[in-house]
Each structure stands twice: as structure tokens, then as C-alpha cells.
Amino acid sequence: MKKPTIQEIESYLKKHNPLSLSGASISLISEHNHLNYRVEKDGEVYCL
Amino acid sequence: MINPESYRQGEWVNIPEEYVILKYLEKTGLGPRSYFVDPERFVFPLMIQEFIEAACFNDLKPLSEEHLAAAAKAIALLNSQGITPENFPFRKGYTRYSYLTSVKTWQKRLKEIKKSEQPDVLEWAQKIEKVIDGAKKILEKFEPLLEKAPFSFNFDGAHCGNTYWKNNKVIFLDWQKVSYGDPAFTLARFLTSVDKTGEVSSANKELMVQTYLKRREVPNFAQLVDQRLFERQTADLVWVLWNYVKENKIEPVEQTINIFPRYKRVKKLLEEY
């Protein structure tokens, strides 16, 4: 199976809005065993 | 989320299980805080957790006594957590009541290595097969001590690449490999990653064992660590060749992976035991 795209993650966040992260900026930070993304909105930063 | 393109993705806990583990560990500060998990509404299960800004132990090498002692304390705290097969479903092969669990894994990996058509891989496979036979006999002798040990929760991914330094404390990341059993497993796993060739210095081992024992009493701990180090060093020897094959590398084996020093060390240990 292929890795998800940033656009797919953005759409997910927009639709389900977990932790009010709809519209957050997303960047890939590592892709070994885990895919880790930096997710930032309104100064709050999370790892997805 | 788990990388769907990783050839190892089926081996570990899944994301909802990792969320359970991180929630359990939250009070210890040993892992990132986990805030949200969604097992099914995205194409893959996903989790949202604390973003950790910290220094990776691989970037802090050579590690100081302060780093090593802090890692030993963190591992003692981790091993004391009450996560057991009764309250968490460990993957088959991730309960370590016997060293022979590892031997089965090595044999499985060797079978996969032997599918290679590269002559130098097959040559190394022959050497490793002999090592596995010898190591198995030694591990059988180690069993009685392990059977008496107080079993513990382990983080199998506790190598320097997953160990971070934040505000003078250790925090571990990437919790997809956890197990239950041998109380010496996590410490041995960490120790074999301090040097890139897998060499473990007596001074580092002594410092970490003594620091651990100040936090958590485990009978015969030093001997259990030695036994597990022998098992881990053999495991790592098998793993480097297996991983070379799985990553479809074609460059000469000895120039690509650190196999020779590992082989030499395990051969020496086989002779000593």
C-alpha cells in the first residue's frame, strides 16, 4: 500500500477536525517504520 | 501512523495498541503524550501525540556518564510498569520467557536470507548458520536463570536512535516494539546501540547495571544482562544480513554492513562460553 499524501491528511483533518486541527499546516518529518508529520495550528504543534 | 511501505510493518503493535501503551506510560514521562487515536476513519489508523523537541542520543555520542545513568534510570522505571500479557496483548514472539524465542526468529530470518542469489550473502549465511547452532546450545544453558527472573515490561526499540535527551531527562520515541519477559532485555538492547559496531564496553555496562540496581532490585541482574547481551549480539549479527537482503542491496556485503566485527565478536563469545 502507498503512503498517504499530505492532501489526504488535510482532507481528513478538515472533515473530522480532531483537536480542532482543521486547516493546520502539515509537513513530513520522518518516514522509517512510522510516518511522522508535524502538524501546526495557531501556535500549537503536534506530531501525527 | 505505521509506514505502509515498510517491509516490517506487520511485526509490531498497531497504532491503537501503541496509543494504549503511551496512555499507560503518561505518568512516567518516558514517552510522548498521546492525545487522540482514530483506528478507522482514515485510510490507515492514526494517532496525534505531543511534538517532542529533544536531542537524539545518536547525535550526542560519545555519550557521557550522565546520559548513560539517566538511560539506566529510565529503563528501570519502564521495566517496573505493570503492563503484562494479562492487560495488554503482546504480539507472538514478543513475550520473552525463553531465549529460544529468539532462536526461532533467527532461523526464520536465515531461511529468508538463503533465498538470496548473491554468492557473498550465501557465504555469510553458511557462517551464520553455524553461529546459530552454537549460540542455541549456549542459550539453553542460560535458561534456568531467566526462568527465575521477575518478568518485566520492555521497550524493544530502546536503541540510541529512539532515545532522546530533553530537560536533562530521557524520553523514548517510536513505541511500536514492546514486549514482556526478561528484565535485562531493554538495558541490553540499549547497550548494544551505544557503539555503531555493537561493541559493549565493560565500563558502560557496569555503570548502567549499577545505576539500574539502585532503582530496581532484580536478583542476578548483572548475569542476566550478560546472557541477554550474548543473545542480542547474535541477533544483531543475523539481523544486519537479513536487513541487507530485505532492502535488496547489491553492493558487496562486507563493504555495506558492519557484519565482520559483529561476527568476530560473537565467535569470540561462543569460544568463551
Automatic annotation (TrEMBL), chain B:
InterPro entries reported for this sequence: Aminoglycoside_PTrfase, Kinase-like_dom_sf
Domain Aminoglycoside phosphotransferase: 14-195
Organism annotation: Candidatus Portnoybacteria bacterium RIFCSPHIGHO2_01_FULL_40_12b
Protein name in the entry: Aminoglycoside phosphotransferase domain-containing protein
